[in-house]
């Protein structure tokens, strides 16, 4: 959840240029307390981004999308080409400057 303020900021700055931010929570849907915590956090920060809650186990999606642990970011251009950014470990985070630069380039590419 540490990345959410940055994602919200990116959304607010660039939504009018076509940026769409969608977050996916990997909290098990049967663990209602975790789902409620995630939803409360999103409300607290007034997140304008769409958040999806997966119905399948995390293992299903981690295998399908080839990631070991969050955070992992998938950036798609207007044609559907994607670039993945992932953290080296849970606390390390991702290279925001690199991701932001790519997003700005993609938004400029009509």
Strand order within the widest beta sheet: 1-2
What is the CATH T-level topology?
A: Glutaredoxin
Strand residue content: 15-25%
Apparent shape: globular
Structural class: alpha+beta
- The CATH homologous superfamily name equals Glutaredoxin
Describe what this molecule looks like in 3D:
The chain has 110 residues and is of the alpha+beta class. It has one domain (4-108): Glutaredoxin (3-Layer(aba) Sandwich). The protein has four helices and four strands, in the order H-E-H-E-H-E-E-H. The chain has helices spanning 4-14, 32-44, 58-64, 96-108, and strands spanning 22-25, 50-53, 72-76, 82-86. The strands form two sheets. It has a two-stranded parallel sheet with strand order 1-2. Strands 3-4 form a two-stranded antiparallel ribbon. Strand 1, helix 2 and strand 2 form a beta-alpha-beta unit. It is globular. It starts with a helix and ends with a helix. The mean pLDDT is 81.
Explain briefly what this protein structure is.
This protein has 4 helices and 4 strands; from the N terminus they run αβαβαββα. With 110 residues, it is α+β, with helices and mostly antiparallel strands. Helix 2 links the parallel strand 1 and strand 2 (50-53).
What labels would you give this structure?
110 residues; Glutaredoxin; two-stranded parallel sheet; alpha+beta
């Amino acid at each position: 959840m540490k990345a959410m303020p940055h994602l919200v900021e990116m959304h607010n700055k660039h939504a009018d240029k076509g940026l769409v931010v969608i977050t996916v929570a990997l909290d098990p849907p049967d663990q209602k307390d975790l789902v409620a915590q995630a939803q409360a956090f999103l409300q607290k920060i007034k997140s304008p981004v769409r958040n999806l809650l997966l119905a399948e186990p995390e293992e299903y999606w981690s295998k399908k999308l080839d990631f070991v642990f969050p955070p992992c970011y998938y950036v798609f251009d207007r044609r559907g080409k994607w670039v993945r950014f992932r953290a080296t470990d849970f606390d390390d985070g991702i290279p925001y400057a690199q991701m932001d630069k790519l997003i700005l380039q993609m938004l400029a590419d009509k």
